[in-house]
Design brief:
The complex is a heterodimer.
Chain A lengths: L2 E4 L4 E4 L4 E8 L5 E7 L6 E7 L4 E4 L2 E6 L4 E6 L8 E8 L12 E6 L1
Parallel strand pairs in A: 2-10
Antiparallel strand pairs in A: 1-3, 3-8, 4-5, 4-9, 6-7, 7-8, 9-10
Chain B lengths: L4 E3 L2 E4 L5 E6 L6 E8 L3 E9 L2 E4 L8 E7 L2 E6 L8 E8 L9 E2 L3 E5 L1
The chains are: A mainly beta, B mainly beta.
Chain lengths: ~110, ~120
Amino acid sequence: SQKIEQNSEALNIQEGKTATLTCNYTNYSPAYLQWYRQDPGRGPVFLLLIRENEKEKRKERLKVTFDTTLKQSLFHITASQPADSATYLCAPANQAGTALIFGKGTTLSVSS
Amino acid sequence: DAGVIQSPRHEVTEMGQEVTLRCKPISGHNSLFWYRQTMMRGLELLIYFNNNVPIDDSGMPEDRFSAKMPNASFSTLKIQPSEPRDSAVYFCASSLASQNPQPQHFGDGTRLSIL
């Protein structure tokens, strides 16, 4: 069955450092992958989308990579800030218009 | 712009009672999704609609769960009878169905507690 794995343990880093979150998938060949941010008591918020033919995507301090050989996506936050503290969810998908399957998420804590 | 609106935000009820969760998607969006989130299982898709038609309800756990979308601006998720194991946060999300992948926009959820 399809399986999505994200760092199960919380990631704690210091302000200013780069945070790297991992999303691995098995029994799956997604055509694209989305990343979401979720704050306590709120719904997930879309951050970035990357297609299988794109190796890397950037948006301000965020960078996402997609390695279809390794079956892995990495999500980087550079110059991290305490306001970046949240849970980050990855969601691969086979094609547009279908439902997303979400990983359980990685909780990031940035201390000042 | 108004986002996805869910009601109620919190619901506490006793086992055996009927529970109805409501969702208003973003105007113009034609795909609607219901999810359930727990610590153990994460965010799970229950059912989704395209143009008000249910497309995939394989995530609906049991016959006690039902969902409807009578029009493009309203959907309900009903649990009858409710059980303590149904306690979770239920999210509704909407998006624009398209040839190109689109982000999903989530409401802030309904926190459901079944006693």
